[in-house]
Amino acid sequence: MHGFVESEGSVVLAEKFKGNSIYFNNFVALILEVEIDNGIFMDGKILRRDFFMSGGVKFMITMALSNNIPFDCKWEFIA
């Protein structure tokens, strides 16, 4: 699944990362791992808001819904 979030929404989304969960299409999904475009993997719990404030950051998020089936969601933050 793909999603594009404007800069205002990215602030809210970054706050959700700090709790290791995110609202996605009316579901609360657990963030399993995040793949940054430079290949670095980071736990969603340690992601900070200032990381998302840089423009044009693209990364892949692996999440699991309540059924614990993981899926990839690519978010592109537009500053």
From TrEMBL:
Source domain of life: Bacteria
Name of this chain's protein: ROK family protein
